[in-house]
């Protein structure tokens, strides 16, 4: 079988997968996009009610725009902020429609390998095509490919409440009172679930900010609505994100809205809390139990927003080079490691940082970040431009950098590192001005003020070039 005649399989018709397909088409290479959902942007539609912090100008891929232009498609106004639903309806679906039969829906990839070679076999490995197995409503199928671009995201595999990375004891049994998504509080049925209730929000990223701000809004109209914000770390200068220093103002505003929820008394912050168990009181309400033995007052609902993780199960026969902590490609991981820096600024990167011991297989988009946060669609578009060029053999274009990424304004150490003491070094990293003083609040504990450290930026740090 001659591999150059075979298509490139793209897994996932999300923003990155569709952009990959557009870039391949531009280079005269046939893509076949396999998408588990029955529409384009199925994962994005899962959070259709959430307004993006990126404007339209940062959400469309240049190669995709070129494909769309002859259809009469007009780019939404550059400076406006779509919701996830808008992004899917006004850009992703039209793009998938123009790609036509190159996108197959209801096609769930279940395995990727080299044809006739499991992962331990070396002989003639690199001359064998890839074989991709997938399921459809009518059964199992397989397709051969010259290369595989996995753009399947991380949306389907949220992290649990348990601080160990495993579901906390009792977490699965309490599933009916737990969600792992930002609730759509504009939907009357969802709103009723949280109105007048006490809800724990676990997490410290943009999604947790969105949930806290939403619950605070509900609290203004519905007495008794209250949030308990569970953080593994302490509160510091950068807990609420970059605020006005964020180069994406809407992202900065999310943190400020969460801060307002706390300041206005709609949410209490519980710091240094690592959830170990979920118990129930006599009425069925949930009691979160910390690793240190603390038991919180009962809550009616729990919103777990502790991050997303990649599903690597269908790649087990492929020789991947992944960082052992982040599960991101080895070369990319140091650029995005939240243990070293929480800055969203990673220098634009492409096929070199995304390559694996197995040639011609790439993890791109949200999935390329593994467990690291702060992925931006723009990053994914640059990745797939470079990867498509590499697959086409155009090394010069593949190596070229064509993107400048915005900074979060919270560069520094300890983006995810959850030791409460880590707050000491936050905000003092490579991008941010030194923080003046950091205040750590402990619930039921006296307020402690600690001085900011003034660390130098870590080598290869977050500001990049
Ligand atoms: C609430 C929220 C808000 C965000 N806001 C922003 C923002 O403002 N700006 C920004 O730049 N980024 C934002 N992001 C990050 C955002 O998710 C990405 O920019 C973008 O969605 C990533 O696109 P992707 O194609 O890599 O992954 P996804 O959008 O997750 O797409 C992956 C696709 O793969 C499909 N799939 C999964 N598994 C399989 C399988 N086994 N077989 C076949 N198909 C499969 C899924 O159904 C999905 O369609 C946000 C994320 C969230 C969760």
Overview of the structural elements:
It is a single chain. With about 475 residues, the chain is an alpha/beta fold. It contains ten helices and 17 strands. It has a five-stranded parallel sheet with strand order 3-2-1-7-15. A five-stranded parallel sheet has the order 8-14-9-10-11. Helix 1 packs across helix 3 (about 60-70). Flavin-adenine dinucleotide binds near residues 37 and 109.
Tell me the radius of gyration: 23 Å
Structural class estimated from helices and strands: alpha/beta
Question: In what range is the share of β-strand residues?
Answer: 15-25%
Average of pLDDT: 85
Task: Tell me roughly what share of residues is in helical segments.
Answer: 10-25%
Shape: globular
Helix run count:
10
Distance separating the two termini: 43 Å
The oligomeric status of these chains comes to single chain
State the low-pLDDT regions, or none: 409-465
Which sequence of SSEs, written as H and E, runs from N to C?
EHEHHHEEEEEEHEHEHEEEEHEHHEE
- How many beta-strand runs? 17
Q: Strand order, biggest sheet?
A: 3-2-1-7-15
Q: What's the story with the biggest beta sheet?
A: 5 strands, parallel
Ligand kinds: flavin-adenine dinucleotide
